[in-house]
Recover the amino acids of this structure.
DNA sequence: GTCACTGCAAACGTTTTGCAGCCAT
DNA sequence: ATGGCTGCAAAACGTTTGCAGTGAC
Protein backbone atom coordinates (compact mmCIF):
# COMPACT_ATOMS: atom_id res chain seq x y z
CA UNK A 1 0.00 0.00 0.00
CA UNK A 2 2.24 2.74 1.34
CA UNK A 3 5.18 3.45 -0.87
CA UNK A 4 8.32 5.30 0.06
CA UNK A 5 9.10 8.70 -1.27
CA UNK A 6 12.00 11.06 -0.88
CA UNK A 7 9.58 13.70 0.36
CA UNK A 8 8.00 11.60 3.11
CA UNK A 9 11.37 10.40 4.37
CA UNK A 10 12.67 13.96 4.32
CA UNK A 11 9.74 15.26 6.37
CA UNK A 12 10.12 12.50 8.93
CA UNK A 13 13.91 12.78 9.15
CA UNK A 14 13.71 16.53 9.49
CA UNK A 15 11.24 16.23 12.35
CA UNK A 16 13.36 13.60 14.10
CA UNK A 17 16.47 15.76 13.95
CA UNK A 18 14.86 18.89 15.35
CA UNK A 19 14.36 19.53 19.05
CA UNK A 20 11.93 22.40 18.48
CA UNK A 21 8.35 21.63 17.57
CA UNK A 22 8.08 22.97 14.07
CA UNK A 23 4.96 23.92 12.17
CA UNK A 24 4.28 22.44 8.75
CA UNK A 25 5.59 25.59 7.14
CA UNK A 26 8.81 25.55 9.17
CA UNK A 27 9.48 22.01 8.01
CA UNK A 28 8.70 23.06 4.46
CA UNK A 29 11.08 26.02 4.59
CA UNK A 30 13.80 23.91 6.12
CA UNK A 31 13.53 21.28 3.38
CA UNK A 32 13.03 23.61 0.43
CA UNK A 33 16.78 24.17 -0.16
CA UNK A 34 17.33 20.41 -0.33
CA UNK A 35 14.17 19.58 -2.28
CA UNK A 36 13.51 22.69 -4.35
CA UNK A 37 10.35 21.35 -5.97
CA UNK A 38 8.78 20.41 -2.62
CA UNK A 39 5.28 21.69 -2.11
CA UNK A 40 3.69 22.73 1.18
CA UNK A 41 0.69 20.54 0.40
CA UNK A 42 2.99 17.53 0.30
CA UNK A 43 4.35 18.39 3.72
CA UNK A 44 0.82 18.56 5.11
CA UNK A 45 -0.14 15.30 3.42
CA UNK A 46 2.88 13.49 4.78
CA UNK A 47 2.44 14.88 8.28
CA UNK A 48 -1.13 13.55 8.32
CA UNK A 49 0.02 10.15 7.13
CA UNK A 50 2.80 9.97 9.68
CA UNK A 51 0.36 10.97 12.40
CA UNK A 52 -2.11 8.27 11.29
CA UNK A 53 0.69 5.73 11.39
CA UNK A 54 1.47 6.81 14.94
CA UNK A 55 5.01 7.85 14.12
CA UNK A 56 4.59 11.50 15.09
CA UNK A 57 2.18 13.55 17.16
CA UNK A 58 0.42 16.78 16.41
CA UNK A 59 0.38 19.41 19.16
CA UNK A 60 -2.81 21.34 18.63
CA UNK A 61 -1.75 24.30 20.76
CA UNK A 62 -4.29 26.80 19.51
CA UNK A 63 -3.86 28.29 16.07
CA UNK A 64 -1.11 26.65 14.07
CA UNK A 65 -0.40 22.95 14.58
CA UNK A 66 3.09 21.91 15.67
CA UNK A 67 4.60 18.48 15.29
CA UNK A 68 6.84 16.22 17.36
CA UNK A 69 8.58 12.98 16.39
CA UNK A 70 9.53 12.13 19.97
CA UNK A 71 7.04 9.42 20.86
CA UNK A 72 8.32 8.78 24.39
CA UNK A 73 5.90 9.71 27.14
CA UNK A 74 6.24 13.40 27.88
CA UNK A 75 4.18 16.55 28.05
CA UNK A 76 4.40 20.06 26.62
CA UNK A 77 4.54 23.63 27.80
CA UNK A 78 3.42 26.50 25.64
CA UNK A 79 5.24 29.74 26.37
CA UNK A 80 2.59 32.42 26.23
CA UNK A 81 5.13 35.11 25.38
CA UNK A 82 7.05 33.64 22.45
CA UNK A 83 4.66 30.87 21.43
CA UNK A 84 7.34 28.18 21.50
CA UNK A 85 6.60 24.69 22.78
CA UNK A 86 8.91 22.98 25.26
CA UNK A 87 9.18 19.36 26.35
CA UNK A 88 8.49 18.42 29.94
CA UNK A 89 9.72 14.91 30.54
CA UNK A 90 7.29 13.56 33.11
CA UNK A 91 5.00 10.58 33.42
CA UNK A 92 1.67 11.17 35.12
CA UNK A 93 1.09 7.73 36.57
CA UNK A 94 -2.47 7.02 37.47
CA UNK A 95 -3.96 10.00 35.71
CA UNK A 96 -5.88 7.76 33.33
CA UNK A 97 -7.31 5.71 36.21
CA UNK A 98 -8.22 8.92 37.99
CA UNK A 99 -10.10 10.15 34.95
CA UNK A 100 -11.72 6.77 34.32
CA UNK A 101 -13.30 6.87 37.79
CA UNK A 102 -15.24 9.95 36.79
CA UNK A 103 -16.04 9.08 33.19
CA UNK A 104 -18.59 6.69 31.87
CA UNK A 105 -16.71 5.58 28.77
CA UNK A 106 -13.31 4.39 27.61
CA UNK A 107 -10.17 6.50 27.98
CA UNK A 108 -7.35 5.71 25.59
CA UNK A 109 -4.81 8.43 26.22
CA UNK A 110 -4.16 11.76 27.84
CA UNK A 111 -2.00 14.76 27.25
CA UNK A 112 -1.11 17.61 29.55
CA UNK A 113 -0.56 21.07 28.14
CA UNK A 114 1.09 23.49 30.52
CA UNK A 115 1.02 27.21 29.90
CA UNK A 116 3.55 29.63 31.28
CA UNK A 117 6.72 31.44 30.39
CA UNK A 118 10.00 29.94 29.25
CA UNK A 119 13.31 30.92 30.86
CA UNK A 120 14.40 32.91 27.81
CA UNK A 121 11.32 35.12 28.01
CA UNK A 122 11.57 35.38 31.81
CA UNK A 123 15.06 36.79 31.36
CA UNK A 124 13.88 39.60 29.13
CA UNK A 125 12.08 42.67 30.49
CA UNK A 126 9.10 41.59 32.55
CA UNK A 127 7.33 44.72 31.35
CA UNK A 128 5.01 44.79 28.39
CA UNK B 1 -14.80 50.95 29.51
CA UNK B 2 -16.76 47.81 28.80
CA UNK B 3 -20.40 48.42 28.05
CA UNK B 4 -23.19 45.93 28.13
CA UNK B 5 -24.90 44.72 25.03
CA UNK B 6 -27.77 42.40 24.36
CA UNK B 7 -25.48 40.33 22.14
CA UNK B 8 -22.71 39.82 24.70
CA UNK B 9 -25.17 38.87 27.43
CA UNK B 10 -26.90 36.47 25.06
CA UNK B 11 -23.63 34.73 24.15
CA UNK B 12 -22.63 34.37 27.78
CA UNK B 13 -26.07 33.22 28.94
CA UNK B 14 -26.30 30.71 26.13
CA UNK B 15 -22.93 29.26 27.05
CA UNK B 16 -23.86 29.06 30.74
CA UNK B 17 -27.07 27.20 30.01
CA UNK B 18 -25.52 24.58 27.78
CA UNK B 19 -23.80 21.47 29.05
CA UNK B 20 -22.22 20.66 25.71
CA UNK B 21 -19.15 22.59 24.63
CA UNK B 22 -20.36 24.50 21.63
CA UNK B 23 -18.33 26.03 18.84
CA UNK B 24 -18.76 29.69 17.98
CA UNK B 25 -20.99 28.74 15.10
CA UNK B 26 -23.21 26.53 17.27
CA UNK B 27 -23.75 29.43 19.66
CA UNK B 28 -24.48 31.67 16.70
CA UNK B 29 -27.04 29.26 15.25
CA UNK B 30 -28.67 28.80 18.61
CA UNK B 31 -29.07 32.55 19.14
CA UNK B 32 -30.02 33.49 15.58
CA UNK B 33 -33.76 32.81 16.07
CA UNK B 34 -33.79 35.11 19.12
CA UNK B 35 -31.49 37.80 17.68
CA UNK B 36 -32.09 37.61 13.93
CA UNK B 37 -29.59 40.35 13.09
CA UNK B 38 -26.79 38.70 15.07
CA UNK B 39 -23.57 38.25 13.17
CA UNK B 40 -21.05 35.44 13.55
CA UNK B 41 -18.26 38.01 13.87
CA UNK B 42 -19.98 39.43 16.93
CA UNK B 43 -20.11 36.00 18.51
CA UNK B 44 -16.37 35.57 17.92
CA UNK B 45 -15.62 39.05 19.26
CA UNK B 46 -17.63 38.45 22.40
CA UNK B 47 -16.17 35.02 23.00
CA UNK B 48 -12.67 36.55 22.87
CA UNK B 49 -13.67 39.30 25.28
CA UNK B 50 -15.27 36.87 27.70
CA UNK B 51 -12.16 34.71 27.52
CA UNK B 52 -9.91 37.71 28.21
CA UNK B 53 -12.07 38.60 31.20
CA UNK B 54 -11.63 35.04 32.48
CA UNK B 55 -15.35 34.29 32.41
CA UNK B 56 -15.13 31.42 29.94
CA UNK B 57 -12.44 29.11 28.61
CA UNK B 58 -11.57 28.08 25.12
CA UNK B 59 -10.93 24.39 24.54
CA UNK B 60 -8.45 24.16 21.70
CA UNK B 61 -9.20 20.51 20.92
CA UNK B 62 -7.67 20.40 17.48
CA UNK B 63 -9.41 22.15 14.62
CA UNK B 64 -12.42 24.17 15.71
CA UNK B 65 -12.38 25.90 19.09
CA UNK B 66 -15.04 24.99 21.63
CA UNK B 67 -16.07 27.05 24.61
CA UNK B 68 -17.02 26.35 28.21
CA UNK B 69 -18.51 28.70 30.81
CA UNK B 70 -17.87 26.27 33.69
CA UNK B 71 -14.83 27.79 35.38
CA UNK B 72 -14.55 25.19 38.14
CA UNK B 73 -11.42 23.06 37.95
CA UNK B 74 -12.07 20.16 35.66
CA UNK B 75 -10.65 18.47 32.59
CA UNK B 76 -11.99 17.35 29.23
CA UNK B 77 -12.32 14.20 27.18
CA UNK B 78 -12.58 14.27 23.42
CA UNK B 79 -14.56 11.35 22.02
CA UNK B 80 -12.66 10.27 18.94
CA UNK B 81 -15.76 8.77 17.34
CA UNK B 82 -18.32 11.56 17.59
CA UNK B 83 -16.00 14.50 18.29
CA UNK B 84 -17.96 15.63 21.35
CA UNK B 85 -16.20 16.98 24.42
CA UNK B 86 -17.12 15.73 27.90
CA UNK B 87 -16.33 17.08 31.35
CA UNK B 88 -14.21 15.07 33.73
CA UNK B 89 -14.50 16.55 37.18
CA UNK B 90 -11.09 15.92 38.69
CA UNK B 91 -8.36 17.97 40.27
CA UNK B 92 -4.81 16.94 39.49
CA UNK B 93 -3.11 18.09 42.67
CA UNK B 94 0.60 18.48 42.38
CA UNK B 95 0.76 18.24 38.63
CA UNK B 96 2.08 21.79 38.35
CA UNK B 97 4.81 21.12 40.93
CA UNK B 98 5.67 17.94 39.11
CA UNK B 99 6.06 19.84 35.87
CA UNK B 100 7.93 22.70 37.49
CA UNK B 101 10.62 20.28 38.70
CA UNK B 102 11.48 19.47 35.11
CA UNK B 103 11.06 22.89 33.56
CA UNK B 104 13.34 25.85 33.71
CA UNK B 105 10.71 28.57 33.61
CA UNK B 106 7.39 29.58 35.11
CA UNK B 107 4.28 27.42 34.87
CA UNK B 108 0.96 29.23 35.23
CA UNK B 109 -1.63 26.61 34.43
CA UNK B 110 -2.23 23.18 33.02
CA UNK B 111 -4.98 21.36 31.22
CA UNK B 112 -5.45 17.68 30.62
CA UNK B 113 -7.08 16.48 27.44
CA UNK B 114 -8.15 12.85 27.50
CA UNK B 115 -8.96 11.02 24.30
CA UNK B 116 -11.19 8.00 24.12
CA UNK B 117 -14.74 6.95 23.41
CA UNK B 118 -17.90 8.15 25.14
CA UNK B 119 -20.52 5.70 26.46
CA UNK B 120 -22.96 6.57 23.68
CA UNK B 121 -20.45 5.62 21.01
CA UNK B 122 -19.33 2.53 22.95
CA UNK B 123 -22.93 1.34 22.89
CA UNK B 124 -23.12 1.49 19.12
CA UNK B 125 -21.49 -1.12 16.88
CA UNK B 126 -17.83 -1.47 17.77
CA UNK B 127 -17.13 -2.21 14.12
CA UNK B 128 -16.01 0.38 11.63
C1' DG C 1 -22.39 63.36 22.92
C1' DT C 2 -19.16 59.98 23.34
C1' DC C 3 -17.20 55.80 22.35
C1' DA C 4 -17.70 50.87 22.69
C1' DC C 5 -20.48 48.11 20.26
C1' DT C 6 -22.77 45.86 16.07
C1' DG C 7 -23.44 43.96 11.22
C1' DC C 8 -21.63 43.25 6.98
C1' DA C 9 -18.26 41.96 3.83
C1' DA C 10 -13.84 41.32 2.72
C1' DA C 11 -9.30 39.65 4.23
C1' DC C 12 -6.53 36.47 6.55
C1' DG C 13 -3.67 32.23 7.68
C1' DT C 14 -3.83 27.45 7.89
C1' DT C 15 -5.09 23.29 5.92
C1' DT C 16 -7.38 20.45 2.32
C1' DT C 17 -8.55 19.03 -2.27
C1' DG C 18 -8.83 18.18 -7.53
C1' DC C 19 -6.20 17.13 -11.07
C1' DA C 20 -2.67 15.77 -14.39
C1' DG C 21 1.71 13.86 -14.48
C1' DC C 22 5.55 11.20 -12.10
C1' DC C 23 8.02 7.60 -9.85
C1' DA C 24 8.57 3.64 -6.75
C1' DT C 25 7.26 -0.98 -6.75
C1' DA D 1 2.15 -1.14 -15.82
C1' DT D 2 -0.08 -0.09 -11.78
C1' DG D 3 -1.49 3.12 -8.48
C1' DG D 4 0.33 5.79 -4.65
C1' DC D 5 2.75 9.84 -4.77
C1' DT D 6 3.93 14.75 -6.12
C1' DG D 7 3.38 19.78 -7.48
C1' DC D 8 0.46 23.26 -8.52
C1' DA D 9 -3.44 26.04 -7.98
C1' DA D 10 -7.74 26.72 -6.24
C1' DA D 11 -10.93 25.97 -2.65
C1' DA D 12 -12.33 25.35 1.99
C1' DC D 13 -12.34 26.36 6.65
C1' DG D 14 -12.31 28.88 11.01
C1' DT D 15 -11.32 33.27 12.52
C1' DT D 16 -10.17 38.29 12.32
C1' DT D 17 -10.51 42.96 10.72
C1' DG D 18 -12.02 47.58 8.50
C1' DC D 19 -15.61 50.36 8.24
C1' DA D 20 -19.83 52.98 8.67
C1' DG D 21 -23.60 53.14 11.53
C1' DT D 22 -26.05 52.13 16.16
C1' DG D 23 -27.00 52.10 20.91
C1' DA D 24 -25.52 52.08 25.88
C1' DC D 25 -23.87 55.16 29.24
Amino acid sequence: MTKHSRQRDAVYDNLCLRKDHPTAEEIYLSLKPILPTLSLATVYRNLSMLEDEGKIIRIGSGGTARYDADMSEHQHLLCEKCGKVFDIMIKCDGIIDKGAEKFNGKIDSYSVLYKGCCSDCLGKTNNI
